[in-house]
Amino acid sequence: MSKHTTLDQLKKLAQRSKAEIGKVDGKVASLSTRVDELVTAGGEPNVITAVKNNGTALEITDKAVDIGASIAAAVANSDHLKRKVVTGVDAIDPAATDADKFIYMVPKTGSDEDDLYDEYMVLEGKVEHVGNTKVDLSGKVDKEDGKGLSANDYTDEEKAKLAGIEMATDAEVDAMLTEVFGA
Questions:
Q1: CB neighbours of 134 closer than 8 A, spacing ≥ 6?
Q2: 155 SS3 class
Q3: H or E stretch including 179?
Q4: Taking the model in full, what pTM does it have?
Q5: What stretches of the chain show up as alpha helix (H) in DSSP?
Q6: What is the pLDDT of residues 57-80, one digit of tens each?
C-alpha cells in the first residue's frame, strides 16, 4: 500500500536535509583548511612517473596518459567472427585456414521470408549447425491504446482513493522550501 506525503512531512524532510548539509559544509571547510596547510608546507602534487599497457611504456603528457590508441589497435588486431554465405554445408572446409573465424550462412529452400539461412560454424575441427535466422516474436507484447504494460486497470475504489488526495501546488512547495532554506 503506498502512502502520500503531506506538505508538513516534506517540510520536516527539508529541515533535516538542511541540517545535514550544514554538517557537510563544516567538513568541507575543515578539509579545505587541511589542503591549504599541505600546500603551505610544500606538499607535492601527484606525479606520474611511468605507465605501461600490456608491458609497453606509454608517453605521459602533462600528468595524463592516453591508452585509447593502444586499446583500439588491440581490438583491431583481435580475431572477429565474420558471416560468410556458402552454397551448402559441403562447401564448408573445416581444414581451411581461419575456418573457425566464420559463421557460415547456408541458404534454406522453401522457407518463409524471415528464416532464409541455417548457420554453421567450425568447432574443434567439425562443421556444427549452431542456429538459423528465424526471428521468434511469440512472446512479444503488443501495445494497447489506453493501457501500459499491464492489462489491469484501476478499480473504482482505487480511482476514488487517488481522486481524494489533495496535491500541494508548486507555489506551496516553493514557499515551504524558501522558508526552510531561505531565498
A1: 114, 115
A2: coil
A3: helix 170-181
A4: 0.39
A5: 7-40, 68-77, 156-163, 170-181
A6: 888 877 777 888 878 887 787 778
